[in-house]
Give the backbone structure.
Amino acid sequence: MSQWLLIVSALVAGLLIPLQVRVNASLGKELNHPAMAGLMSFIVGTAVMLAVCAMLIAGSKASAPDVKQMAGFPIWIWAGGLLGAIFVTSNIVLAPRLGTSVMICSIVAGQLIGSITIDHFGLIGAKTIPISIPRIIGAVMLISAVLIIQFGDQWTRKQAANSSAALSSGNSGSAGGN
């Protein structure tokens, strides 16, 4: 698979995240309980993953995981479900309060900072990629984007109100002189 196709696939997956956020936030509102909405989301996701795994196993020579082998895995390897639950519940709680775009930008900024840290130290089996000036600049730009998206409209409205007030006071003075 080409690098570009992989990047486009990642972009498409990324496009689904705001949709998931809005769907889960709406479910949380309907249920009036963010944790219950998260549970329902995970139940549906688990059912889908069971079906996908069943199809993949049936269509190949793969077999179901070996429970004895899994028992020997490091304990931290099971944290993905916990982290996913925190992520989904955070989305359900934060999306209605922050708005989808600010929340997603904040999440992406956090992901970038976390990714740079994981890469730099080679954590959890990642290939070590030292932190660099371009990576730092990229992270700062992304954090700046969060701030612009969050506060840019407020600044624009304030500037428009100030301009409008200045024009009004200037026009009323000249209109009285005619």
Summary: The longest helix spans residues 133-177.
